Each structure stands twice: as C-alpha cells, then as structure tokens.
C-alpha cells in the first residue's frame, strides 16, 4: 500500500495471531519489488490495540482470510468501520521446491496488488 500510494494513509498490518515470524518467502517476493518486510513482525488485533492503535480510528479493514474476516467483524461491531474480505490464495502450504513455493507466493503478492489497484486505482507514487 505504501509503495503504491505513499505514506499519507495510515496503514497497519494485523493478523489473527502473532505467533509467527514474517514468512521468508513473503520477504523474498516483496523484496523483488523493493518492499522491505525483513524488519516487520506480525501482530494480532489484540496486540495492536494494546499498543495504542484504536480500531475506531481506521476507516477500513481488509481481511485476507475467513478467520481474519470473522475476527475483524467481531471486533468492529460497535464501530463505524468497513470490513472487506479479499479472497487471496494462501501460499504457505503450496509447492514442493523453492522455485515452486516462490511462484505461489508471487501469485499471492500479485493478487494483492491487483486488488489494491482495483480499489484505489493506479499507483500514485514513483515506482
């Protein structure tokens, strides 16, 4: 999001759980397009609120899995906040070889990029 539309929009990446490091294949395929994920760490909705990010300050939650959609709807039932579900391929269990895994992760990355551009139009930042 920041790569395509700049830093003028406040964006947080949140998951249902925070029990995993950022996946190395995710880091690799994002690095191919100069997006650095190596320093990021996963956080849960609960952790986000503990750190001071109030859900009511957001306009939109984009859920990429049915579990995250359920959790987002549960947490936002008292807020004026939209929740969208984008059914994106989960590449985590796909592919036998490194190249096959990378191909699956690239497909997921590209699906997310397509959805971003469908929602917010062509990138506004210099690539």
Give the arrangement of secondary structure elements:
Blueprint: H1 2-5, H2 24-31, H3 45-50, E1 60-63, H4 66-75, E2 82-85, H5 98-120
Parallel strand pairs: 1-2
Describe this structure in words.
α2 packs across α5. This protein has a single domain, classed as 3-Layer(aba) Sandwich (Rossmann fold), CATH 3.40.50.2300. The protein is globular, with a radius of gyration of 15 Å. With 127 residues, it is mostly helical. It is 40% helix and 6% strand. A two-stranded parallel sheet has the order 1-2. The mean pLDDT is 86.
The first-to-last residue Cα distance is: 12 Å
Structural class per helix/strand content? mainly alpha
Mean pLDDT: 86
Number of separate helices = 5
> CATH first level: which class?
Alpha Beta
- CATH topology annotation: Rossmann fold
Residue fraction in strands:
5-15%
Radius of gyration: 15 Å
Shape: globular
Strands ordered across the widest β-sheet: 1-2
Task: Provide the succession of SSEs.
Answer: HHHEHEH
What is shown here, in short?
The protein has about 130 residues and is mostly helical. The protein contains five helices and two strands; from the N terminus they run αααβαβα.
């Amino acid at each position: 999001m920041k790569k395509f539309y700049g830093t003028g929009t406040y964006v947080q990446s949140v998951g249902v759980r925070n029990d995993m490091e950022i996946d190395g294949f995710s880091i690799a395929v994002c690095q191919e397009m100069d997006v650095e994920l190596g320093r990021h760490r996963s956080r849960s909705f609960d952790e986000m609120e503990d750190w001071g990010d109030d859900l009511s300050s957001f306009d939109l939650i984009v859920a990429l899995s049915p579990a995250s959609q359920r959790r987002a709807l549960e947490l936002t039932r008292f807020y004026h906040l939209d929740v969208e579900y984008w059914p994106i391929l989960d590449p985590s269990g796909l592919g036998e070889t490194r190249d096959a895994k990378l191909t699956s992760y690239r497909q997921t990355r590209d699906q997310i990029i397509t959805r971003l551009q469908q929602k917010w139009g062509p990138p506004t930042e210099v690539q």
